[in-house]
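Appendix B, example 12.
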Amino acid sequence: MFDLSLETANLLYAISNGLLILGGILVVVGSVGSFWMTNVRDRYTNERISANEKETARANEHSRVLEVDLAKTNAELEKQKELTAKAEKDLLRLRRHAAQRSIEFGQFEALIKNGPMAPVEVLYSNDDGEAFNLASQIVVSLMMAKWDTRGPSPIPPTTDPLRTRLPPAMAVGGQPVGVSVVARRETLRAFEKVSSSPVEVLVNALVRSLGQVAGGANDADTPVGVIWIVVGPKPPG
């Protein structure tokens, strides 16, 4: 096929075998190098992954700490809101307690002016300036509406031995605090014969002017035919 001498063929054969051997060696070296470098690259990759995982863990821990701190801050804010709300309620309660009771003269007079009338005496808790001030306003309003009015006078001592240990306003038939309308049962029975009694007129006017008003009876001290308006101490709150 080829015009080669035996010597040339032997030389080329030897060279080819040498090249095959060299190629095999290079393949082995290449395979070993590739395996080795792959391991090296994997090691660096694993180190980077490990470093990233550690950094992620630190970030997560920092985030958890921030969440805990935020929760504590929110809890403190809620506590401060509760304390502030309580302080505002206490302040409002103190302001209401410190404020004096009063009636609106025009409204009160309009409610009692054209109704049935009866003699009225306005009493107040002795040594209570606030009660005296309210009793004075009621007296002025009654006089402006042309009612037969006496007072304001301190609550007199009761003649009923069973009531002597009670608070002064309660001893004469009223409530211990607040405003009460008191009369003898005999007087109350006489008023029951009419459709609208002076007691009802006064109670209605006082309720609409002050809020809560109580009624009571006293057969020991109240004069017949006379209505007592008893102004006790200001109710708490």
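The chain has a mean pLDDT of 82. The longest helix spans residues 6-98.
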